[in-house]
Fold these 3 entries.
Entry 1:
Amino acid sequence: MIDFSVAICTYNGEKRLPEVLDKLRDGCAYTTTLENSAQSLSWEIIVVDNNSTDNTAKVLKDYQADWPSSYPLKYCFEPQQGQAFARQRAIVEAQGEFVGFLDDDNLPTPDWVVAAYTFGKEHPKAGAYGGQIHGDFEDNPPEEIKSIVAYYLAIVERGPKAHQYLKKGVLPPGAGIVVRKQAWCENVPKKIFFTGRVGKSLMACEDLEVLSYIQNAGWEIWYNPQMHMYHKIPRTRLERDYLIALVRGNGLAKNRIRMLRMKPWQRPLALPVYMLNDLRQIILKSIKYRSVIKTDIAAACEIELLKASLISPFYLLKRNL
């Protein structure tokens, strides 16, 4: 019996994957020290190769050669490009009651699996939960963009107390998210609307779509401060063009996420209200930031998000035709 499955979805991750696997090897050693205690558990690692064209498969094969046999390290290939397809494949392959998703730039602490499994067993109504995500920056971000970076690059440090996500529109990021397999299988469509970032497109939000389905079905979504991991962030992700494109992608996806949280009869009424509010905010922010828009990255991102949110209904309609 497998209690917990760690799923790593990767695309061309031959250079990033080894560090993640080394951290999980440390986790294997940590779990082994608990094998005679009440906290002992069995877990597996599944690497989903999402149509890579590099040596990702060879990296896995090399690691499998001397991997601890008590914690199986498995490889599977998912040819359909996109994080949503890779995660769905991971759910199918996973044997654990819980599935913890790591990206190939997420470095968990040795006790991450134990902390994740323990929390899930202690909270039987939790359909999904995230933990603390600390930034491992190649270059420290300038003070003026720290809030933008933290939100859009999935830095989560919300204190030492566990809490349930109750506020509308607030959910944990997909990096390091743990999902109860039952909650996913019973409520998440096999093919969701968002596929994840493909090519040059930075429109994602497939993680928020999945969590919305789970939350709408009555499952709880939680923050577990005992789960710690580090998100490696290269300097290129702090550049103005990247951040604006990232924010734009989130804005273009916004209408779908907004509507998912509402009952069908509420959606036609809410749509014009959201659009009018976005337009009002664009006008107000454009006036407020008119003298700094070309130099202030945070201001530029804020306005770009509002503009993308405003056209989101039309963009998504055209994309779905």
Entry 2:
Amino acid sequence: MFLGIKLEGWLTILAIIVGPLLAFAVQHGRDNRRERRNRKMEICRKLILTLKVPLNPNHVDAINSIPLEFHSDKKVLDAWRLYSSHLNMPQRAPSADDADAKRWLERKFDLLVELVYEIGQTLDYEHLDKALLRDNLYVPKGYADVEEEWRQIRAAWLQVLNGQRPLAMTVLGSVQVERPMELVQEIQLPARPQAAPALPPAPRGDDGR
């Protein structure tokens, strides 16, 4: 007994004080874990929806968020490093029949599929296999065509601006007119007003005043 209170009483007081604190800590930990999982699921969802349209801003945001949200998942980080390193390789603007560019794009897609697969495994999406990601996701052909056309337009303009490609021009013929164009008359500017003549100094008296 201490301060007139038995051991059972002290245990009851301790439970009254500590119990709510422990319950709050447990609930806070659960909320944090749920929030982290939701963020990871959102990244996975964005990557799947933009798997075949990688220029979509949501795809770029999801890729850049991976090292923040999956910092403790080694397989995901390894796959992300391989993919980002491949993206950051210096590439010249590819032409339509550029075999190296085609191999680069194929390797890029393979690494992206591997990355999304590892994210799915981390989130316990066991049904999310590589064959499904590669072949069974629906993307309207128009989306892919528009993205490829914009890529070709940007690449062609960069070649023109860098002096690597001439700008094609077509001359339809000489321009003929009925009579020579008249010369434009010279525009006469208005004359500036002349300044008023200065007044002569006033005469002084004999005393100099």
Entry 3:
Amino acid sequence: MKIDRKRLLRLLRQFRKTKVLVIGDVILDQFIWGDVSRISPEAPVPVVLVERESCMPGGAANVASCISALEGQALLIGVVGKDSWASKLKEKLKRKGITKGLVVDSSRRTSLKTRIVARHQQVVRVDNEIVAQINKKITEKVIAEIKRNAHAVKAIVIEDYGKGMISPYLIKEIIAIARKKKIIVTVDPKEEHFYYYRGVHCITPNQHEAEKATGIKIVDKKTLTSAGKNLLKKLNARAVLLTRGEHGMCLFQKGKKAEEIPTRAQEVFDVSGAGDTVIGTFTLALAGGASYEEAAHISNYAAGIVVGKVGVGSCSQKELTSQIERDRSK
């Protein structure tokens, strides 16, 4: 399909009028930045001399941040502990204009991912979290929060990082609310939970997740098509947007030919957060009136910008507009 880039630019201008509700596992991403000049005498590991530290919203909170960076209006619902990490996460979200929707579960701790980065290379990641399923009482609080906010949004993103928030019961309730209010539902899936998502509008798996879910090893166009069609049928979804790293994306829709979209990345420094960017941008575009094809192309541009940044980055509307305009002028 030939894409009208002039129309893509018009769709970007709709973002600031569009509200999207993000539901899922929220994480605080911590980065420790430093330099390496020697190996430890205690073990064959690098010694990192710390230069600075930073924190940013991660998981579903990063998807909301991506939407906010694109000048969309993001609402966020997730579960945090009653701890300093939750306070830090709320502070970071408040600065981005994302101020409500976090449900406190005092029996859990807020998920924290610490990445140690030296000379632009990630040395190690440390995960500090509880991944047990949230209890029924907290789930009901989450559902109540969804019902309070659903009237204001055009789309819902389910961001499943497998940290315990997303369950079949919660998905069923979200789909019921969305159908009643005619709201688009998209999912960034966790491979172990693929068949929780039956009945959503679209999922955005990466190639590894699609292979695990279907049992089909993707090695050529034939196996790629088989995997995509398999997911469409089993999930009864309207579309599947399969992301393939340096090979770009492939969009599958019911009754349509699969569309392969080449990557827009010029250089790849870090793929952290690329999936969050894809689902956030794709859903925001759909909510703003884009077709599945147009939304896929817009999210492909955004992902190409993000992987060119070190750390979990985001794409601004200005960057996205500039990139599409450059391609249009060619």
